[in-house]
Amino acid sequence: MLTFLIVSAAIFIAVKIYNKVQDSIISEETAPKTPPTPSKEEILLTEIRDLLKK
Question: What is the 3-state secondary structure (H, E, C) of the chain?
Fold first, then answer.
């Protein structure tokens, strides 16, 4: 009986740790990623495009 309790407690702790690791991995993957900042060339081209539209 004592062996059963020790083994079940060890499995319970292992599953809790596994779930915490999985949650942290999932939260990192679903975290909103900031879009990359446009380069200077892209900013200049956007400005030129906007000026040509006027």
Answer: CHHHHHHHHHHHHHHHHHHHHHHHHHHHHHCCCCCCCCCHHHHHHHHHHHHHHC
> Measured between alpha carbons, how far is 44 from 12 in angstroms, rounded to an integer?
58
Q: Which domain holds residue 9?
A: 2-53
* Residues of the chain under the 50 pLDDT cut: none
- pTM: predicted TM-score of the whole model, two decimal places: 0.50
